[in-house]
Amino acid sequence: MNRYLELGAVNRLEIVRSTDHGLVLSSEEGKEVLLPKRYVTEEMAIGEEIDVFVHTDSEDRLVATTERPLAMLGEAAVMEVVDVTHQGAFVDWGLPKDLFVPKMFQREPMKKGERHIVFVDYDERTHRLVGTQKIDKKLAKASKKSLKRNQEVQLLIYGRTDLGYKAVVEKRYDGLVFHSEVFESVDVGETKRGYVKRIRDDGKIDLLLRPIGKKSDDLAARKVLDYLESHKGMMPLNYKSDPERIKALLGLSRKNFKRALTKLLDANKVEVKENGTYLRVKN
After folding, report:
1. Cα–Cα dist 230/228, whole Å
2. Where are the beta strands (DSSP E) in 161-279?
3. By percentage, how much of the chain surpasses pLDDT 90?
4. Which of 29, 33, 165, 242 is the most buried (most CB within 10 A)?
């Protein structure tokens, strides 16, 4: 159970009493927060502990919900702009009360209906949760305890540089996919599956869009088979094919593709000819 109430995070709290407005929840230190009636279920009983997300209501009072936002404090996600004022914009972060993004925290003026990558931050001046587009220095530094080499992670591409694509890793860490490691289309704002290549001394993460080692070979082989199965058993590629052609059709490096071909040949699943590769027909 939480010792104190943590704004912007999931808290484990004890149900201590019922009121006309909902259930009152308490931390170990006796700090209380209301879970409004609309989130109360018949299974909830006084004395039990439940997990809730703590944020603020329209009057800036702490309030609990059993719902989860698209991103919590210290995390980033793609959010839609639902309203714009002179002071800033409101974005839908998955809760009834929208998240406010002050003008000073916008990279460019937001417009209603647009979708932007927004980081959930704490504003020291107002003591509220706010959104910001200026996420470069906000993202957390990873450690070898938090992530492991070759671990599969969720990526949110938030920028492009001369080195590669900048990505938010698991909604909170800062990472980079180098251009030399990209063999498929990548767009800013896109969510991708990635893999940890290395955690640098500065806490940033070098990333791959494919796993390392045997997992990479298995994934490449699956891509080749998927292509063959969806193109009447024929693929206009073989061991001599141009790297750019392989990249365009399969999103693989030439090295990865050749290893996949060898794996499938050894398993007697394909036949490689001068004009391409063919799926073997099962007898």
Report:
1. 5
2. 164-169, 173-178, 191-199, 205-208, 234-235, 270-273, 276-279
3. 87
4. 165
